[in-house]
Amino acid sequence: MNCDRICFASAAPLGHSLCEVTEFIRLKKESPIQRRQLAPAKALTGEERRRINPNNGLVKLFERNMDVLVSRFLYPHLSAIWNPYTWLIRRRFALAETTVSPTGWPRELPPLRVLLLSDIHCGIFLKPDTLAHIVHSLMKLAPELVVVSGDIVTGHSREVQPFLHALAPLAGARLGAWFCFGNHDYFGGDPDEIRKSLNAIGITTLMNESIRIAHGSSTFVLGGIDDLILGKPDWPRLMSQFGAPHILLAHNPDHFYEAEARGVHLTLSGHTHGGQIRLPKGPPIIRQSRFCLDEGIYIFHSSLLVVSRGLGSIVLPWRWGADPEAVMIEIVAAQ
Questions:
Q1: Virtual torsion, Cα 258, 259, 261, 263, nearest 10 deg
Q2: What is the pLDDT of residue 20?
């Protein structure tokens, strides 16, 4: 398999029958997904702070109410005639790649390829067929482990239903597909509906729990912590069976310092969207991390954090300066 040819079909023209659209997509020349290398890990002092804590207070209340207003009442009436995010994601989606060697990673383990997806935000801005093309293309890379670090919906738990067929191929990874809750997964409906729906297609939810996974001649522990803002994180429960996990799924990167203090050496997060809108070579206009953990790889003491920009969009069906992405992480034991 030539891994440099990861492709998905371009958008079909509007105003045609289903058969015509299907034929158009089949015949349309495929466009390769862009690929980029993540920059080396940024060293943290532990003193980085925002003046305003985005995890609570009026800022978070305003964001949640705006999301609900747009996703439930405003954009559904516009999406039939104005849907720019479908155009954007087909042209700007990229696969970010990196190799990491976390402290404490078992030396007996062979290299492990992990596909990190975050902030898919099923719902009004993203179309099921668009997600299906992207998932199909990414799974051609044969990741051994797939992780989805929260915010699989935008405003209500039922939004995942039309996307299940698009998400199902993720469960084909040899070591399975795993999910943890994000703040948007609590916005409306019943989060347990999301868990049951994902479980039905082979994606397992880790909510303050861990699992030991066999890989090669050894094993590693994968854990998932509940959302920092609207969930109920329970660290003692998470670590009760296997201790500190080798890999932790934590939707909000602001879990990182707590994870580091508890001996977790690799945390995989999303939540920030990389800012979603940011000036060229500048910081995000709106920062979702109290500790300025916007995107990319960070290191504090001996612990690593990978923050994905994520796939979807909220409030506005647009990104600028923080294009949508998935992250392919190769984990290798330190020499």
A1: 170
A2: 39
- What average pLDDT does range 298-315 have in this prediction? 95
What is the pTM (predicted TM-score) of this model? 0.88
pLDDT at 8 over 70: no
Token pair for 67: 């999301």
Cβ-based burial of 62 (10 A; exposed 0-12, middle 13-18, buried ≥19): exposed
305 strand-pairing partners? 267, 298
Count of other CB atoms within 10 angstroms of residue 290: 20
Look over the chain and give the mean of its residue pLDDT values, rounded to a whole number: 87
pLDDT band for 53, please (50, 70, 90 cuts): confident
Mean pLDDT of 233-260: 98
Average pLDDT over residues 302-306: 97
Q: Where are the beta strands (DSSP E) in 229-308?
A: 247-249, 266-269, 296-300, 303-307
Q: Give the tokens for residue 17.
A: 């029958």
- Indicate the angle between helix axes 128-139 and 84-92, nearest 10 degrees: 10
CB burial readout 21-36, b (16+ within 10 A) else e: beeebeeeeeeebeee
- Asked if 325 and 93 count as a contact pair (C-beta separation under 8 A), the reply is yes
Q: Report how far residue 296's alpha carbon sits from residue 280's, in angstroms, rounded to the nearest whole number.
A: 16
Q: Does residue 131 carry a pLDDT above 60?
A: yes
Sheet containing 266-269: give its strands across: 42-43, 296-300, 303-307, 266-269, 247-249, 218-224, 209-215
Task: Give the pair of three-digit tokens for residue 7.
Answer: 């492709």
Please report the domains of the chain, with CATH numbers, ordered by start residue: 38-331 (3.60.21.10)
How many residues are there in the chain? Answer: 335
Give the C-alpha separation, 4 to 212, whole Å.
32
Res 15 pLDDT > 90: no
